[in-house]
Amino acid sequence: MQKIDTWYKAEGYCPIEDFELASYLLFEAGVATLEELDPKAEGRTDFCFYTGDKAERDRIVAEFPQYHFTLSDEPAKDWDKWWRDRAQPVSVSPHLWVRPPWVEFTPDDPQAVVLELEAKTAFGTGEHDTTSSCATLMESIDFKGKTVLDIGTGTGILAMYARRLGARMAVGTEIDPLTIPCIAENFERNGFGESDCVLGFLDAFKDGTKFDVILCNMIRSELWPLRDDIEDLLAPGGELIISGQLLTEKDYILKWFEEAGFKVKAERVSTEWWSVLAQSTINA
Predict the structure, then answer these.
(1) Which residues pair with 213 in a beta bridge?
(2) With contact defined as beta carbons under 8 Å apart, do 90 and 128 qualify?
């Protein structure tokens, strides 16, 4: 595909009642997209179209003098560069920052953790309320020397944060194979070497496998079928963070906790989302 360096714009107007016909005629003449603009005068519709071909724009404009077109040129944007130039570090939680690889950043807090992260084909760069709440609840856990399971790890942000907080091992699970190269790249970029991500469902773990801490940031419809596996994989006295739940659905989780022997240690609400830190009381 030929790169477009300049967009050729034509801006016109017609009486409101004529806009439907004008749209039809302009599309028939070769206009690909017609954008409605805020009217500059009462009783009329203002509109514009763009094309990368100056001769095509001029031909269309010449066919419709009744639409009073004015012409202008705009340099084409490099949207990837535009996005990269505006990317900023994200404050995920009180002690966690995420920065794009191309942005230099040092937080004021010397104790803060900064992860270098690029989402690419995976979900989770820290902006979402559910990720922020999960990371915030993690800061009340002593991770030193513990094993962690991050279910649906996405970019690996929470698993990497657990490692930075002192976990000796943080295993992530994913069912989307497209996320695996992204996770591996993020772990390597942040100095962890190879990631411990597992492609597959929770039944991929051997019987008897236990984790000291389990993180699960996913919506209830995805979480709900995993309850038995989570109970089996959590070590006695282990801690569990559930995020990604709507506040209106918290009673479902609390009912499960009551039945499974989990004690709520902390809750967090952010907009419509509810997150919770609980601890197993089974053989604790």
Answers:
(1) 148, 239
(2) no
Do 91 and 50 fall into the same domain? no
Q: Are residues 58 and 175 in the same domain?
A: no
How far apart CA 235 and CA 258 sit, in angstroms, is: 17
Please, where are the H alpha helices in 41-178? 54-63, 79-86, 129-138, 157-164
Query: What is the C-alpha to C-alpha distance for residues 240 and 55, in angstroms, rounded to an integer?
Result: 64
Q: What is the pTM of this model?
A: 0.71
Task: For residue 69, give its domain range.
Answer: 6-76
Tell me if 151 is assigned to some domain.
Answer: yes
- What is the rounded average pLDDT of the residues 81-103? 83
Same domain, 36 and 147: no
Q: How many Å apart are CA 144 and CA 127, to the nearest integer?
A: 26
List of E strands, 175-210: 198-199
Q: Tell me the average pLDDT of the chain.
A: 91
Contact 247, 161 (CB under 8 A): no
Query: In this structure, what token pair is assigned to residue 1?
Result: 């595909």
Q: What are phi and psi of 6, to 5 degrees?
A: -135, 135
Pick the residue with more confidence: 6 or 79?
6
Taking residues 48-72, report their average pLDDT: 96
Answer positive or negative: Cα dihedral of 149, 153, 155, 158. negative
Please state the domain count of the chain: 2
Q: Is 88 left (phi over 0), alpha (psi -120 to 50) or beta?
A: beta
The CATH number of whichever domain residue 118 belongs to comes to 3.40.50.150
CB neighbourhood size of 116 (10 A)? 18
For residue 276, give both structure tokens: 């919770």
